[in-house]
Amino acid sequence: MTELNLLMIVDIIVTVLISYKVFTLIKETRAIQLLKGILVLFLINYISRQLGFLVLNMVLEQLRTVALIALPVVFQPELRRALEQIGRGKLFKYWTSRNTFKVELDKLVAAVIRLSKSQIGGLIVLKRETGLREIIDTGVKLDAILSTELLVNIFIPKSPLHDGAVIVDQGRIVAANCLLPLTENKKISQSLGTRHRAAVGISEETDALVIIVSEETGVISTAFAGKLKYNLDEFDLKEELFVKFREDKDD
Fold first, then answer.
1. Most buried by CB count within 10 Å: which residue of 1, 62, 160, 161?
2. Rounded to 5°, angle at Cα 173 from 136 and 138
3. Which is the CATH superfamily of the domain at 105-245?
4. Which residues make up the CATH 3.40.1700.10 domain(s) of the chain?
């Protein structure tokens, strides 16, 4: 009897932890609204059964079947994002190699500061663990060693590759002129331009760190996990890079 009670307690704890993790993954997405709608339907279904409303109950049963088929299609981006975040969890870091940031940070930061002072717009995606092959394929592949001069020249207005984003992976400029998905987050200020919305969009779908330089103001921002940090100076940017790309202490 004691073993059975212990098993039930463990079962409840595991269920609560999984439920909480699922909620944290969807709480700022469209899926949370769907979850609320499903809970309302279940409540109505329960009440209809208790009252003996056969027709209403039959309609609700049909809606449930349709919903189960439609959900994976309608919410494919949210499901994909959730699965990717689970796959990036600590459990799997012991079996996957960590993509540490090997490039000299001074070169990257120097390029960003130069873009900022010249008020040249820039969008730089720094790959971490999630693959960016689909994004890279939308641009022009370079596979060049990162240098301050090259990075600045890519974003010079009217240059062939100045539009879109640059992808950086392990100290190399992998591609330029890449297209990024725009965020659908309604909480993002409408005053922000396409660069910022694209930066948030790719940071929602991957674990990349994105650096944005505003063309209008020269302000430096970063996007990570769907969140923006505004008005960074050189020290703030270096600190952000160190935190996101430092090697694990256990490595």
1. 161
2. 15
3. DNA integrity scanning protein, DisA, N-terminal domain (3.40.1700.10)
4. 105-245
